[in-house]
Amino acid sequence: MINISDKQQMAQDKKLIIGNWKMNLDMHEASLYLHKLSKLIKNHRDVEVVLAPTVLSLQSLSLQVNLRQFKLAAQNFYWRDMGAYTGEVSASQLRGIVQYALVGHSERRHVFGETDKDVCNKVAAAVRNGIRPVICIGETAWDRSNNETQDVLHDQLIGGLANITSEELSQVVIAYEPVWAVGTGQNALLGDVRLAIMMIRKQIENLYGATAAASAQVLYGGSVTTDSAADYLALPGVDGLLIGAASLNAYVFSEIIKRAHKGSTLAKKD
Ligand code: PEP
Question: Using CA atoms, how far apart are residues 256 and 224, in angstroms rounded to an integer?
Answer without folding.
Answer: 9
